[in-house]
Amino acid sequence: MCLAVPAKVLEIDGQDARVILQGVELDARLDFVEGISVGDWILLHAGYAIQVLTEEEAQETLDLWEEFVGGEE
Fold it and tell me: DSSP letter at 1?
């Protein structure tokens, strides 16, 4: 199963970006989505941005993920 997760863009250098996901900084590529800016939320899949999200969409997805993971205990 593959997942795409919300991440916040911290830095951009050409098509390379630094994002933060649940407190972890990762590298990401921006080849597939145009118009991404620092501070935007993206949907990250396999190291690539595949969609820009609103902050509300990102938070809703993160809340659902927490609910799912928390339900495993």
Answer: -
Long-range contacts of 63-67 (CB under 8 A, 24+ apart): 65/5
DSSP 32: T
Question: CATH number for the domain including 57?
Answer: 2.30.30.140
* Listed residue (53, 47, 22) closest to 35, CA to CA: 53
What's the number of CA atoms in the CB half-sphere (13 Å) around residue 40? 19
Count of domains observed in the chain: 1
pTM, rounded to two decimals: 0.88
Q: Tens digits of per-residue pLDDT, 28-60?
A: 999 999 999 999 999 999 999 999 999 999 999
Nearest to 30 by CA among 46, 48, 13: 48
